[in-house]
Each structure stands twice: as structure tokens, then as C-alpha cells.
Amino acid sequence: MDDSRPTSGASVHPDAPLGDMPGFPLSGMPETTNMPAVRQPLYPMLAVPLAMLGLIVALLPPLLVTLALRLREMDVASSAGHLSLVLAIGAFFAFVSNPIGGRLSDRSMSRFGMRKPWIVVGALIGYLGILLISFAPNVLLIIVGWSITQIGFNFALAALIAMLPDQIRPSRRGRVASFVSLAQNLGSVGATFIVQLFAIGTAQNLLPSAFGIVFMFIMIAGIKDRKRTERPAETFSLKTLFGSFVFNPKKFPDLGWAWLTRFCLITAQTTATSYLTLFLITDLHIADTKAPSLVFQATLANAIGIVLTTAVLGWLSDRVGRRKPFVIASAFVAVIGLLIIATSHSFDGVLLGELILGAGTGSFLAVELALISDVLPSAADSGKDLGVVNIAQALPQSLVPVAAPAVVGAFGYPGLFVGGAIFGVIGALSVLRVKKVR
């Protein structure tokens, strides 16, 4: 891809991580040309996905279960509308904070590394938000708590996901990206499993997220983080700050189409995850007290589908050197899963749909993350660019709740899931426009 950003003009070995690119002064990563192939360290290949598992376990309990239950405690009749409001405002702060967190980690000169400080501080801020949600007496404070949670965890997420191009050679990214995707999706199983171990109340609100944060901290402790040894050439200013949210799709069209692909598929996925609890309660007439257990079973079925396809397809995409066919196929599989959920009249149908949806979305996110890493314009801005890409993951979580009440009012929750399936088809077609990656 034609890249207008300044480079050193030196050659880089194709198996060198992005962090090894010349012209980007980082300790432990010498500037050199004709770089020989180096052995990929095993620990980061395991630790980055496992740290992602901990982060998702920390973030998802409110999103999947406890927010809906807390809002139903306050006002059963208005809980769906309140949930949409909470999710929409929280997601706005998610997509604002994610690229800013990525940009700040790119510029960080901490002696502890570029990424780790933002992961640790972000996670602790996120947990403060969960504490506020647990004790909030009204919807307004739940909105504030969820917004703080999204800000903190998205700072952590931006820094953690930037470790993929930092630490992993291109020839290993497909399989490691598949493990990251696997961790993201299995995190929902871990989160809902821990949640359903506790009765509705404070312990259910607080303990699952605490377990996830501690596990993530343990995993990142052994990673040798990148360290910047020279200050960035560009001074940090409002222009730099607002630049965290954009890239030029005319200069970098492959990244633009990859962004649109992710936006559409995450929109499809969000319809089924954020509203599953309310769908079970209102359409399948499940009691509130039984909902956490059934949501766990549904996410477990989703995870089984993920396990059956994700790691294999990530490895296979590395093996054959192709990404797009796998992205397209997995997107259409996810669409089939959504349509099955939409037409289900029993919990067994939901389980089947979740199984197929998991097979599709898990493999999609695995291969598509590797595709995005392959088309990043610059090593120096990898955290920022991945933060912009993560807007495509956060933005649907804001837009879907805005549209959901009207869609559900007109067509019910099945209509919402069908709408998600339509976005899935658009996402599958968008990736055809990516040129640099086959």
C-alpha cells in the first residue's frame, strides 16, 4: 500500500514485528537493515491472549447480565429503555477513550514500558466504575459508573491490543490473533459462569470483574514491554488529540475497508449479545432469577462454536497466506446464526443459533484482526491506528442501543436480530475491497 508517512527507507525482514521497524527508537529493538529472522518468543504468544481473556472477564459481567438486572430492580417497565440509554452513553465514552488510550501509549516514555502502565491504570479506573454501578441508587449514577468503566477498560484494551503487532512476528499473527479472538469470546463464558455462581446482589456485581483484572495483571507481568527512548517528534496538542480519532481512507483505503468490515460485523454481534437477557425474559418468558444461568448456557454454546473454528482458521490463514476468503465465509456463518436466534421459539433454538454465531464471529475476528495488522500504515502509530480500528468495535455498541428501542417496538427482538444479520452481509462484502491482502 502506498504509505505517505515518513519512513527511513531501510529494508525490514518480513518476519520482524512492527516494533522492530527502523526509524522508531525503542530500547531493546535496534535500528538495523537486512534484519535476520529471529525466533518468536513463546511467552507473548500465550500471555497476550490470556491477558485479553482477563480483561474481557472483567468488562463483560455488567454488559451481559448485571446492568440489565440492576435496572430491572429499579424499574421493570422501563428497564429496556434505560438499558439502551446506559449502553449508548457508555459506548460513546468507549469509542472516544480507545483511540486516545492508543495514542497515549504510543507516546509513553515510562520506565515501565509503553503499554503496561496504561493497562494497569485503565483497569483500575474501570473497576471504580463497576463499584459505582453496584451501589448506585438511580439510573443517572449507573450511567456515570458505566461511562467510567468504559473509559478505564478501553484505555487498557487499546494498550493491550497494541501488544499484538509489538510482540508478534507477521508470520505468527494469524494464529495469535485467533487466540486473542478466542480469548475475547471465551471471556463471555468465563464472565457469565462466574456471575451465575452468585445470587443477585453485590458479590455478583463485583467479584467477577475483580477476578478478571487480577488474572490480566498476572499475565502481562512477564511480557517485556517496549520502551521509547526518545520523545515523539510531534508535540502533544489538541490537533494531536483529535488526530487520534481519524485516518485518511484515501491514503489508506485498505484500512478504511477493513474498518467498515469490522463495524458491520460488530453491529451484527451486538444485537445478539446486548439484548439476549431481555430477549429471554420477554420473548421466551424466562424468570429474572433464571436468566443469568441461561445466559451462561447460551454463551457457552457460543464458545463451543468459537473453539471449533477459531484457532484452526487462524492457523490455516497463515498457512495459505490468505485472509479475505476466511473473513467472508465466517461473516456469512455468523449471519446464519443470527437468523436462527431471530426465529427461535424455544431456548434450544437460541442455543443452536449461538453455536453457529460463535463459529462465525470467532473465526471472523481472528482472521480479520490479522488482516488489520497486515495493513497498518505505520509502526510508530500502531497503537493509535488500532485505537481507530477499535472505534469500529465500540461505535456499534453506541448506535445499536439508540436504534434498538424503535426497532424492537416495531418488529420485536427478532426484528433487531434480522437487522444485525443484514449488517453482517454488508461486512462480508466490504472486505472484498481490501487490495493489499489476499
TrEMBL record:
Keyword Transmembrane on entry: yes
Record keywords: Membrane, Transmembrane, Transmembrane helix
Stored Gene3D superfamilies: MFS general substrate transporter like domains (1.20.1250.20)
InterPro entries membership: MFS_dom, MFS_trans_sf, Sugar_transporter_CS
Stretches for region Disordered: 1-25
Transmembrane segments: 42-64, 76-96, 117-136, 142-164, 176-200, 206-223, 259-282, 294-314, 326-347, 411-432
Domain annotation Major facilitator superfamily (MFS) profile: ranges: 47-438
Localization per record: Cell membrane
Major site of localization recorded for this protein: membrane
Alphabetized Pfam families for the sequence: MFS_2 (PF13347)
Keyword RNA-binding: no
Biased composition (Polar residues): 1-10
Domain of life: Bacteria
Membrane topology: Multi-pass membrane protein
Name assigned to this protein: MFS transporter
Source species: Frondihabitans cladoniiphilus
Lineage of origin: Bacteria, Bacillati, Actinomycetota, Actinomycetes, Micrococcales
